[in-house]
């Protein structure tokens, strides 16, 4: 009897928790190894971490303005669609579905499984099949929760955000105590230029930006936010500053306790830190880290399902995925769509190769989205925005993103080429199925074969006719 739609249930606290819960996840606990390996020294790795935080703040401010200008949910997808047009937005959707999101979810799931099992197998490494099994169980649990209730998944995100901050503080406090006692030997020759390889720096930034990724998550649920014109900028600024401070202190703590070779040799940096600095918490911190990854999985599923929901509503994805459960008010088909690809990538993937694989596509399209902000300002100078950033912020962020994407072809040509091929493979799909020049008859044929909207329309029409016949019989009776 009432309208079925996604309710406004995301308050400022929940938006802050969503952002914190999405940023502070597996990244800070696995990325230090990737940043150090590709930056070459402790000093340059800390510079990379701070640079990634500053870059994330620039991007978050751009997305906050886009969120006040464009009132639809969908994040990167809807911003590219509204500013640059349907082709680049569909290419993003294609790459996001087949490469970016499943690889990202697989990385976080594998980190969850590794940290969850670490206390049971220490000092040995956990068996790979067991890690993958636990990773999938964790992912399926979050999938079920997001299918069941928006309110409960938002409450879980709020609770796990405090768990994440607790996990960081359990690493920061003992590290700062040791640093205050004069343990600075690992910072000697911190800026060793001999180990710096410039063409590897984009991969160091990819690893660092992976740890910060999540600052854009509020834009995916814009339509479900309470007072979005106020809460988006507030939640973004507070959460990103909190994470920058936390990440810098966490990395300083890591390097206070662990030498360079210890970080590079460790499959789980946080566990190695606790083994060395705080043995009484050897079984507690890995569990807290695993719960942190659990929260990141929850935030990722929560937001990406909205992208599929909006894309379906815009006519670039099958109509089935714009449907909402009539009692649960969750986008159930959109939530459930990802699990086959994530399952596959968890079973066959490795964390660091997956990270490079999806980072190329992700930062390419984020750069295009902020480029779209510049275009949107130029096209609509009369549009009043309640939140506006200086022009140099989107310009500098876009240039850095696209430059890093271009440089990464030299750093990791194999994985980057695979990511590029995945993006380009969306061209024929767009022109065969989405593009308006194709005849309606041919489009229907392709759609019914691949996406099934014609079949659903046919069944809906027949059901309506059947109901009319039944109603007529009842009236006659």
TrEMBL record:
The UniProt record lists the keyword Kinase: no
One annotated GO molecular function: L-amino acid transmembrane transporter activity
Residues that span the membrane, as ranges: 12-30, 42-64, 76-100, 120-142, 162-183, 203-221, 233-257, 277-297, 332-354, 360-377, 389-410, 416-434
Entries under Pfam families matching the protein: AA_permease_2
Keyword Transmembrane helix: yes
UniProt entry keywords in alphabetical sequence: Membrane, Transmembrane, Transmembrane helix
GO cellular component: membrane
UniProt-annotated location(s): Membrane
Topology within the bilayer: Multi-pass membrane protein
Protein name: XCT protein
The species this protein was found in: Serilophus lunatus (silver-breasted broadbill)
Lineage: Eukaryota, Metazoa, Chordata, Craniata, Vertebrata
Gene it is expressed from: Slc7a11_1
């Amino acid at each position: 009897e009432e309208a079925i739609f996604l309710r406004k249930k995301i308050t400022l606290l929940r938006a802050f928790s969503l952002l914190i819960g999405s940023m502070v996840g597996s990244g800070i606990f696995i990325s230090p190894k990737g940043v150090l390996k590709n930056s070459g020294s402790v000093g340059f790795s800390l510079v990379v971490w701070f640079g990634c935080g500053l870059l994330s703040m620039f991007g978050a401010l751009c997305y906050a303005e886009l969120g006040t200008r464009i009132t639809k949910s969908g994040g990167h997808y809807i911003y590219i669609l509204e500013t640059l047009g349907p082709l680049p937005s569909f290419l993003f959707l294609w790459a996001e579905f087949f490469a970016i999101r499943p690889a990202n979810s697989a990385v976080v799931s594998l980190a969850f499984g590794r940290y969850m099992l670490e206390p049971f197998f220490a000092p040995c490494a956990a068996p790979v099949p067991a890690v993958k099994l636990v990773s999938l169980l964790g992912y399926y649990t979050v999938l079920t929760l997001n299918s069941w209730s928006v309110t409960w998944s938002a409450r879980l995100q709020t609770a796990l955000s405090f768990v994440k901050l607790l996990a960081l503080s359990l690493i920061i406090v003992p590290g700062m105590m040791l640093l205050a006692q004069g343990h600075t030997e690992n910072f000697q020759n911190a800026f060793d230029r001999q180990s710096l390889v410039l063409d590897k720096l984009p991969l160091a930034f990819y690893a660092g930006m992976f740890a910060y990724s999540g600052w854009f998550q509020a834009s995916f649920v814009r339509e479900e936010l309470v007072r979005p014109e106020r809460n988006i900028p507030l939640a973004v600024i507070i959460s990103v500053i909190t994470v920058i401070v936390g990440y810098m202190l966490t990395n300083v703590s890591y390097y206070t306790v662990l030498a360079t070779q210890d970080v590079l040799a460790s499959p789980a940096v946080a566990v190695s830190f606790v083994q060395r600095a705080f043995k009484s918490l050897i079984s507690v911190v890995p569990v807290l880290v695993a719960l942190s990854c659990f929260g990141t999985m929850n935030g990722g599923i929560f937001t990406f399902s909205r992208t599929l929901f909006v894309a379906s509503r815009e006519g670039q994805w099958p109509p089935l995925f714009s449907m909402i459960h009539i009692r649960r008010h969750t986008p159930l088909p959109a939530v459930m769509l990802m699990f086959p690809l994530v399952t596959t990538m968890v079973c066959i993937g490795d964390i660091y190769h997956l990270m490079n694989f999806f980072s190329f596509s992700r930062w390419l399209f984020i750069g295009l989205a902020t480029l779209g902000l510049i275009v949107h300002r130029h096209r609509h100078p009369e549009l009043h925005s309640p939140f506006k950033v200086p022009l140099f912020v989107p310009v500098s962020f876009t240039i850095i993103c696209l430059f890093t994407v271009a440089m990464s072809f030299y750093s990791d040509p194999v994985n980057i080429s695979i990511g590029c091929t995945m993006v380009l493979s969306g061209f024929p799909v767009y022109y065969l199925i989405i593009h308006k020049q194709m005849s309606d008859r041919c489009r229907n044929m392709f759609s019914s074969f691949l996406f099934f909207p014609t079949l659903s329309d046919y069944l809906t029409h027949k059901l309506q006719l059947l109901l009319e016949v039944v109603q007529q019989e009842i009236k006659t009776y």
